Amino acid sequence: MLQLALAVSVFTVATAVYAAIGLRWWRRARIRREILGVVATLNLEPYHVAALKNRETEAAAAELMLGGYLDIDEEGAALLTEAGRDSGRVPDRTLPAALLEAVRRHDPEPVSIGWIDWCDEEYGERRRAYRSEQDALLPEIPRMPDGEGRQLLACCACVGVTMLLGFWLLAAVLLVMARPHGVLAWAAAAVAAAGLAALWFADGANKAVTARTACEDPLGERYRAESHPSFSALDERQRVHVLRSIGDHSTWRGTDRELDEGDDEDDGWMDDDWWADAYHYQAADHEQEPDGRDEDDRDGDTRGTSPGTPPCDQTTTSCPGRCSGHEAQ
After folding, report:
1. Residue 280 and residue 82: Cα distance in Å, rounded?
2. Distances in whole angstroms, Cα of residue 183 to Cα of each of 139, 142, 176, 179, 180
3. pTM above 0.70, yes or no
4. Which residue from 79, 87, 100, 119 is spatially nearest to 248, judged by alpha carbons?
5. Mean pLDDT of the chain
6. Which of 245, 236, 224 has the alpha carbon at shortest distance from 58?
């Protein structure tokens, strides 16, 4: 009986497929429990936790403000206090000390913390060195298998999926074409149809296993909700100023400061001496021209042209002879 053969074969294939999916789920869940167990035993330094979230500069700026080394105004400009200018006073932590040195290099010009974080090479090197040093102290954390580097296994899986798809199509065609007769045949056809439906949703079940057992960033998942103690100690106004300074990557560095709409146009870079020099040179060029020469040349050019000829469009004494009036002549 064809329906009975289809029911047995489809049921066997579906059982094998879902057994493989269940085995994969069990293996990935076990590895995930190991990863979370290792992460739970870690006791990381607060600045290392902030570095895992790329917020170590923000935490360092907050500590400098609490220590009285630094002040950030409402525009996001970081300015040193008297204690910050005292070279004998240095914070104990590595990152606040590096950030304080970076701000001192730009003193007395105001500078944004974001500009230092992005553009100050010396501070960037010290920040990366600190991160590498702390990461080296971490224990070895198990990794979730991702299939990379296993080409043979990937090829076998591809061949298996192709064979499974061919089997599904063949079984579906036979099940539709063969008409069952009797209760047993109908029951076998129902079992075969249920097995084909289960195989149809096997890919979705496999993706659900991957999503539910994913563990891409276990350290970040643990410390994502935690905030650095120094940043938490700031009041709301200070937090806003720190975040504004962190987000400013281009302005508030001496003459690089952008002009506001209310600033006077005569201020800033427009007061440079080259404007006055350019005007002086232009005036000197006019003073060197002989008196009365311009008017004589213009009168001569006008008299030498016919009414239909356009006059010379060079009204200076240095007409090169290539103007529209000369070309027309």
Report:
1. 44
2. 63, 54, 17, 12, 8
3. no
4. 119
5. 77
6. 245
